[in-house]
Amino acid sequence: MQSKIAHAAERKAFSVALDQVIKTASGPDREKSIDHLVDMAGKLLKDTSPGATRGIRNGLHPGSKWEKFLFDVIDQTDHNVLKTAVLNGGYEAAFRGLRNTTSNAEKYQCNVPWIILFDPTSACNKHCVGCWAADYGNALNLTYDEMDRLITEAKALGTHLFMLTGGEPLVRKADILRLAEKHDDCEFNIFTNASLVDEKFCKDVQRVGNIVFSVSVEGTRESNDSRRGDGSFDEVMHAFDLMHEHGLLYGTSTAYTKYNVEEVSSDEYFDNLIQHGCRWAWFFHYMPVGEGANADLMPSVEQREYMLHRIREVRAVEGGKPIFAMDFQNDGEFVGGCIAGGRVYCHVNARGDVEPCVFIHYSNANIKEKSWLECLQQPIFQAYRKRYPWNDNMLQPCPMLENPTILPEIVKESGAKTSEYVAPESAEDLCKRTTPYAEAWAPKAKELWLEEHPTGKKVYADHMSTVDVDTKAKIIAEEDAKAEAVVD
Question: Which residues form the Radical SAM core domain (predicted)?
Fold first, then answer.
């Protein structure tokens, strides 16, 4: 582990270099700054994501949509917000963080997540149809001291990215700002319905610099309000305008179901988000979590296949839209499959239970009773770690949705208890709802996977371990050498 003095000096040097790059990118010779940005990214990612520079250069070629996207972000984002996002998300998390979480995972023989999701509260001012968080009830809260201790202990293991879910996190605005001020080497992404975003809060976020937003949107005004309540769509658009005016960074979080797939993937939908300054669009496959959840809301096989192709079309290097779209379920191959159980991320609910995933409500540990390291060493996380991956097809990444026999085995083996308190249910009952879907999706997933990967596997395993990173670096170096030989 790096000493505090060496870390401070390295961060300062990177900060000075970043100021110069942003200044150049804001001037008349801004195109020249692209190489500096890519070189900086290469230095940050070479030990954890070899080959990333090649992809970045390809996307940022002169005149490309991603070059314009980058310059728009630089021009329209507050300097403190932009610089802090790169410092904390790039330097602290992607560079130092991944390196430290990987080494600590090997040291302590447990998963150490790169990202932690936690719920400050289960309280919410909305009652959205199909919300997975509703099963926790609305009267649970983590105290400021509990959240502070979680972040402090997680940072000691290398984690610097935190996503705040709920409930509605902004019910706890004051505590969130206090956490962001104290932990100014971390980046916080708030998943919010945006109804509590106002001008004063935007100014506070601009000042602290290390908060970004993923705003819940489900489609057009009519469909959005039918799920989230009358006036919700207009609240979101108003929040977008306020955040854009203050130079903040934000995107969207959208759950797609059988009934809104076409709408939330349409040109009109994306164009509206882009017009309102959104930089990213998270898409989450509807999960039938919680007793009485409606499995009929799950997309059909044809709809999921459509989303797979559509999201990749939108974010393609050529064509598409100037917004970074991601599909949490269909993009599994880019992160080596399931990322839960602390492999890349995990979830802490508002009662303090540490869960493998926001959709997997079973746990052996609570942050109010154990240290963070002890929570990561709990039996259900170790069961996840022992069994990764569930199969070689990364279009079937989840032990609940696409591999419904796996989750009940993990829960039974680990002795984990349900962390739903309003309507608890067994893993067996949960997976009974997903089994028909899994059986229907499996042949299509196999067909799609083999089209891209004829051997049935990727060339290298994209898992968070030193061995796999070294293997990946070697393969990429060989590919680059071959490409250069062809050019010569």
Answer: 108-321
pTM for the whole structure: 0.90
Residue 225: helix, strand or coil by DSSP? helix
Name the one residue in this structure whose structure tokens are 């305008």: 241
CA distances from 337 to 195, 378, 399 (A): 34, 21, 10
CB neighbours of 53 closer than 8 A, spacing ≥ 6? 38, 39, 41, 42, 45, 46
Tokens matching residue 375: 């929570």
Mean pLDDT, all residues of the chain: 88
Left (φ > 0), alpha (ψ -120 to 50) or beta: where does 63 sit? left
Residue 274 burial by CB count (10 A; 0-12/13-18/19+): exposed, middle or buried? middle
User: Which residues, 6 or more positions from 448, have their beta carbon under 8 angstroms from its beta carbon?
Assistant: 305, 308, 395
Cα distance between residue 416 and residue 364, in whole Å: 5
Could you read off the pLDDT of 428-456 as tens digits, one per residue? 999 999 999 999 999 999 999 999 988 87
Beta strands across the sheet bearing 354-355? 324-327, 280-285, 250-256, 211-216, 187-192, 161-164, 115-118, 345-348, 354-355
Output the CA angle 35-37-42, nearest 5 degrees: 90
CB of 236 closer than 8 Å to CB of 191: no
Q: What are the structural domains of the chain? A: 4-76 (no CATH), 110-441 (3.20.20.70)
Contact 52, 41 (CB under 8 A): yes
